[in-house]
Amino acid sequence: xxxxxVGRIIGGSFGVVFVQISAGQLPTAVGAPLRLLAIAAFxxxxxxxxxxxxxxxxxxxxxxxxxxFGRRYWxxxxxxxxxxxxxxxLINPVLHAxxxxxxxxxxxxxxxxxxLAAAWQLPSLRTLGAAMAACGLVxxxxxxxxxxxAVIAVVAGTAPGALLLAWTWRPRAAAPAAGA
Length: 180
Known about the structure:
mainly alpha
């Protein structure tokens, strides 16, 4: 399994988690279909992106070699965990703003995609990261103004989850041309 496939599975998994958790803030008539749609999108991506699936280029005869994530990936993940924990310690017990938590998480996850874009040389991750970070920032601002939790959940939870799931469905990156 190559980095791209693993990245899609990880991104899709977290997309489903974002939607599942944030949909809990919504009325059941809205939240339940969103949860089912997220699961269907993830399962569909797994089927379509599987080895031998419809997105595999015709000239790709052998599966890509297994590739480890490398040290830079783990540095990015470690920085993400530290930032998440530091923010959660500040947001909840110090600022007493639990509604801002989902925004903080979306913001940090979005920013971490900039590091991954550099580590994996996948520029598309910068666009995803910017969109997710923006959702997180808007969610935190909404929390500061006392916006209802359901609105914050949609902006900073459901929307980033949908972005992650949509990213997993993007076309595969073209292989670099020989000599490039």
